[in-house]
Amino acid sequence: VGRIVLLVGIFAVGFWLLRYQSSQSHALALVNALKTSTTTGAPKIIEQMDDYRNGANPLLLELARSQNPVESLHANMALPPQFADEKILLEGMMTATPAEFSTVRDAYRRVANPENRTSGLWVLLQDPQITEDRRFRAALALADFAPPSETSPDEKWQAVSKFLSDQLLEEIQRNPGAYEPWMHEARPLRNLLRPALEELFLDKDGSPENRTEAATVIGSLLDDQAETLAKLILNAEPSQYHRLAPVLRKLGSTGQSALESAYSKALVNESKPLDVYVESRRRKGAAAIALLE
Description:
about 75% helix, about 0% strand, mainly alpha
C-alpha cells in the first residue's frame, strides 16, 4: 500500500510539474508575442493571458521596465490595473497613431481613476504650451470619457471648438490615413464642431483646400442632419457640392424635403436687390440639380 501511495504521489507531482512547465511556456510565448505585436494587435494576445496570469505577470512587470517604449506600453496594457503605470499609458495615448488611438485609450481607461483622468486631460487640452496633436488627442479621449452635451456644450468645450475643428482638418490633410479613425472618434463632438466647420465651409476668402476638406468632414460627421446639409449645399462651390450631394441623396425624402424648404426661404437684402435675385437663382439652380440627380 505504501508503495502504491508513493507511486501515486510521484505521478501527481510529475503531472503538476508538467502542467506548471506548460503554463510557464505558454506565458512566456504570449509575452514574447506581445513584444513584437502591433499595438492594435496587442488586445487579442492579452485576452489569451487570462489562464496564465501567474506566469505572465512577473514577465510583464519585467517587460514594463524595458527601455523600448513600445514594449513598455504593451506590457502596461497587459498588466492588471494595480500594477500598470498610468503615466506610460497616458503617454502612449498622446503619441498613438490614429489607428492605435482607441486601443491605447481603452487601456488607459481601465487603469486611470475616472475623476483624475478627466481633470488631467482638460489640463492638457487647455494648455497652449502643449503641442496641438497632444491637445487634440486629449480632446478625443475626453469625447469618449466625458463628452459634451449634444444640445448645449458647456463653456469649456465651446472655448476649444475652433481649435478642434482646425486641428481635425490639419490632421487629416497631413495624414489621409487618419480620416476614418478620426471621424469615428470625433463623432461625439460633431455638434460642438458644427459652427466652426460651417464657418470655414462658407468662408469665401478661405483656401479652396480647407473649404473642400470642411465639406468632406461635414458630410461624414453630420450625415443625418438634412437641414444643415441642405442649407450648405445651396451655398457650395462645385468641389464642396460633390462632397455633400451624395450624403443628402442618401437621406431620401427627408433630404429632398429639407432641400425644398431651404431654397424656398426668401433672401432679403434691400440695399442690393440685384445681388439677391442672382443669389436666389443660383441657390434654386443648385437645389434643382441636387433634386434631379
